[in-house]
Amino acid sequence: MRVDLFDFDLPDERIALRPAEPRDSARLLVVDPNSAEAALSDYHIRDLPSFLRPGDAVVFNDTKVIPAQLEGIRHREGAPGQQVSATLHMRAAPNRWKAFAKPGKRIKIGDRIQFGHGENVCLLGALDAVVEEKGEGGEITLRFDLSGPALDEAIATVGHIPLPPYIAAKRPEDERDRADYQTIYAREEGAVAAPTAGLHFTPSLFAALDAMGVERHFVTLHVGAGTFLPVKADDTEDHKMHFEIGYVDATTAGKLNAVKARGGRIVCVGTTSLRLIESAAGDDGTIQPWSGATGIFITPGYRFKAVDLLMTNFHLPRSTLFMLVSAFAGLDTMRAAYTHAIETGYRFYSYGDGSLLYRKD
Known about the structure:
One of its GO terms (cellular component) is cytoplasm. This protein is α/β, with parallel strands linked by helices.
């Protein structure tokens, strides 16, 4: 499909720079493409239980954001040091990470990068890595001198929360972001971007779901920095998705299949949990235990196998995520929904408001 079909104009003031307080006070646009009378309805996140039924299952992505934005100095024999930035996006081994580097063109295989600018990191003075591979679009593979938990500790010490570029361009990261840019149920470290639909949930909202008999289940997909990359191709067939690591365990798969078998619905919180569930589902809709790297690219025409409803934030124009929600609820419906959201003051992107989408029949 043509990528310009997924374009729209967003006023700058609609970009949220901080989350709503409390989190579940954010607005919720309910989008039902199968309803002729009330396709678009305005609510708040705390109203979510009103749209669920006992026996439904809500699926969350429990990945935890790490301080994956690293600043350092590139060293090369016979050349002066140069300041570089690296955003880690996928772990390749206990001592290796794939990263997006700036300025990428000036980095070569064999370069040594010293991150931390002399800050104390595990008593070594800095966190060092060697550029082992170089790919397209500024992607590199870094082999660190540290490995495993020691590397994790060092990254946590010198790294910064990798705020989305549309927020970072307007204000610097601060200590508040360490809490704001994390779901309350995050536990599996490895993401460099938050599963932002989950940022809306509070203990009281969880209690309300529990009280009405809605199941809660957790899967893990470590969101990569590729989620922020624009689609530069003119046609969706020419776009290359970056892979992300995730898994669905056997117990969770079995419970979700039981929900479907008794007529319950699977409600995914965020496009990340949806992409993982759809990666794990067979053509008959049965969800299998699954682990690995997924690069599933969902555009209109995709047949959803397992997910019935999707809670998600408002996404960037010409993005893979806007393509995904258009596949789920219909392109015309989502264009109308985004027009409504812009005209009525919804807040967009990572710290913005949310939507609840019914899958188009």
